[in-house]
Give the backbone structure.
Amino acid sequence: MTVVDLCYSWWTNITSDWVIRPGIAFKYNTRSIDFYALTFGDQIDEKGNITPHSIEHSRAPHTTKPFLDMEVSAIGYSDKYWGGISVDHLLRPKASLYDDDTYHEDMKISMFGGAKLYVGAPSTRRSRGRKSKEDMQNVSFALLYEYSKLSDQLSLGAYWNKNPFTLGAWIRGIPVAVREDSYGNLDAIVLLLGYKIYDLHIGYSYDFSIGELLSSTGGSHEISLSYEFAPRVKSKKRHGVIACPKL
């Protein structure tokens, strides 16, 4: 699958502490498949040899399907709080490789937000400036709610940060709107550990399945490396930095 996005966003200060940043994206997507490179069950004979023909070849889909899509979003934030919404698949494109005019991509709505609480931070803005907030111990709480036609899930997370360490935990896939035709989606507990060396972030996370895969998988591990480019550009306008965790 190939996706080309053309994105545009802008920001404005709605108060001295709050910034709002809307955005819009136009997407050109191409889905493709080499159907004849697949091996189906009726191609394997009794001796285990693979024959070149299958009944599935008679109903092979298109090899390529291009389509256009669109997404809009907005986020508002201050130095302690953030929240926003995004709506994807606004054009509900026909994305099937088959000639199926009844299938459309379902619109997807995502809502997110959170707060960062500084532990032991000075009470006044003037005194806070004496100490970099990056060095202050803080606790962050975050949520993400995703909704589409056949599924919805809520994820809740929390982080503790004391430079250069970060510890975090998420519970992912809490069902909210239970429907008869919805998928069961209670997913996993995620544990995170991060370490920062100047602008280099090193992260480790472990996903522990708690849903139907609990007896079939031991979870998954992930290691990440990211480098943050943060040039100090002087600006007359105050846009601030989103307070959400960087790991």
Q: What stands out?
A: Helices lie at 125-128. The chain has two domains: 1-78, 106-247.
